[in-house]
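Question: Now follow the chain.
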Amino acid sequence: MEFKEIRKGLEGVLFDTLRIDKDNCFEAVIVNNELAKLTASLGKVFGPPVCLSKHKLSPRAQEAVKDSGGVRAGQTLYFWNEGKDTIFAMLWPWQDDYHITLKIVRK
């Protein structure tokens, strides 16, 4: 899976704030009315999100997301890996119930 293809798949999603847009890391903030478009785009690439319970994540997924703060209740994780290639997307809802941070990382 190519990282640039994932980024291209996000075209059409309106980002409130773009924080990072590099070859192996993308971070942005959306508002709630963009969430359906975003999750549809991520679903096409990753399939459904993986289980949100830390105990049900594979050891590989736990290790991959560790440096990004791990996954907590209320957050969403999409995860893909093949061989040594790992890409994941994390969604963090804000406490204001309006903004959501998206982070996509390739390791």
The helical segments are 3-9, 35-46, 59-66.
